[in-house]
Amino acid sequence: MNNSFPKYDIKIYLTEDERHTPFIVKGLLSLERMGFIILQFKSMPMLFKNRVELVDGKFIRGKKGYPWCPELLIKKLDDNTELRIGIDLQDWENYFSYHSLNSCNYIYKRAMTLETNKALDAKIPNLFKPFGPNCNEKVDDIRYKLQIKLNSYKQIFPRVISNPLILKNKVSFFDFNYKKFKNRNIIVNKYPKIEPPKENYIFFQVEYHNWEGKTANKINNFRAKIIRKLKYNFGKQFYGGMWFKGQINEKYEDCISNVHTDYEVYKSFINNASIIISTNGFGDSIPWKLVECLKSGSFIISEKNRHLFPYPFKNDEVIFFEDTEKCIQLCKKYLDDNELRRKKTNKAKEYYQKYLEPSIVLKNIIENSFK
């Protein structure tokens, strides 16, 4: 795509979030290089009490912040019409940005089930649209880095004013982590693998979440159950497991990963695996790993996800399971069927290139918002 003249002027209003936002920025920077847009980086205003929760059909404004929803002010250059959209990449479907609710023509939300979408549409028609999945991206643009650094200082004041306990909570949190994890080295097997094997294998490597609470425990327990069954059923044809920070939770000691966590090693195991296992994230959100594996053209067996994709899977690009028994059955069915896996991996990569590449996602959002 090489445009003689830009079609849109876009100002992206950033918060302090550096975890999810790079996916959006990478897409916009690609469109800027293609000549499709003019791009400027701006700062969101101070966001006081910016978190809103949907409870029993009602929006309830809370004290906490909500930095996961940057906004785009888009001007269509052929007629100067303008739209403002929020892009909400938080894991939980019941939380929202107060500023975006009151300022945007549309909000594209990553975490959204069909049920929630219907409830939101009944409450505020045509405001919310599914964003779909994203993944971890890195951005080196100096404009972006400077704006993010500025925002990190700018938003401290409203966060403290909105919730003074944040200072006490932060001190307690860091004190707790210092005492419990003086050594925060990443822990895997004593002799971790750094090169993938040549024979067929299944790969599933996840982080142990050391946060207290039912949600983290549920995720850890479900993933541990899969790891144990994969080890039992496939032995040396299974690679991965759990990696830990600082210390091993004895409950999951038998699940410790046998693969090094270096990103290049991890990527090598992803790219060469016969089967990749993917499970849902917090809030049952669509995991980053799913997008990363589609991008690499992997054969993916994934936990079924209820969140909406703007472009649903139609050709078995991903094989889904609902429980651990089904996961094992699918692995047994496909592990040694090289030809069937090859056909599906081609479809996975095609799906990513057509629908999930950051510039494609942002271009579709920009153009569809004016229809």
Note down, in words, how this protein is organized.
There is one protein chain. The chain is an alpha/beta fold and 371 residues long. The chain has helices at residues 21-33, 98-103, 114-123, 142-154, 156-162, 165-180, 214-234, 263-272, 288-296, 324-334, 338-356, 358-369, and strands at residues 8-14, 37-43, 51-55, 58-61, 71-76, 81-88, 95-97, 106-109, 128-130, 186-187, 202-207, 238-245, 275-278, 300-303, 319-321. The chain has a 6-stranded mixed beta sheet with strand order 2-1-5-6-8-9. A 6-stranded mixed beta sheet has the order 10-12-11-13-14-15, with helices on both faces. It has a 3-stranded antiparallel beta sheet with strand order 4-3-7. A hairpin with a 4-residue loop joins strand 5 (71-76) and strand 6 (81-88). Helix 1 crosses helix 12 and helix 11 crosses helix 12 (358-369).
